[in-house]
Design a protein that fits this description.
single chain; about 140 residues; mainly alpha; Arc Repressor Mutant, subunit A; 4 helices; about 60% helix
Length: about 140
């Protein structure tokens, strides 16, 4: 009986997950119904239209700190102003200062993840390159 708190915690978590499944299943059913109505309307106007040719649109999750395209521009601006290779941590600190956000460890880590993601994309586009490492940290500079 010493593990009853574990069981009660797991039961509560299961109940929470079941509630989420029910909520999202209801939403899926509602959206499926709407799609059926839209399909019927498309067929009404164009009976020969192949509905299977309609691909699902990907939904992007927007970053709460940046507008679309703002983060890559900001990273490139920081690299241009630096004039030499700098670490992603220094880039993230500069991003926080530019955006006027609080400089704490959690925010620096979040911005560093954003910066590294953007830097990899920019590296694939050949806009930035890796510089000489500073200890264990990689540095980046404009190509």
């Amino acid at each position: 009986m010493s593990e009853s708190h574990v069981v009660s915690g797991l039961v509560a978590k299961r109940a929470e997950m079941s509630g989420l499944i029910h909520k999202y299943q209801t939403e899926i059913d509602r959206i499926s119904s709407e799609i059926s109505h839209i399909d019927a309307t498309i067929k009404l106007f164009s009976p020969e239209y192949d509905l299977r040719s309609i691909r699902a649109k990907k939904r992007r999750v927007q970053n709460k700190y940046f507008k679309p395209g703002e983060c890559p521009r900001l990273v490139l601006d920081i690299l241009r102003k630096a004039g030499c290779s700098i670490t992603s941590r220094k880039i993230s600190e500069a991003m926080l200062q530019t955006k006027g956000l609080e400089l704490n460890a959690e925010m620096i880590d979040q911005m560093q993840r954003n910066a590294l993601g953007v830097l990899k994309i920019l590296e694939n586009k050949r806009l930035v390159v890796q510089g000489m490492p500073e200890g264990l940290a990689r540095t980046w500079m404009i190509a």
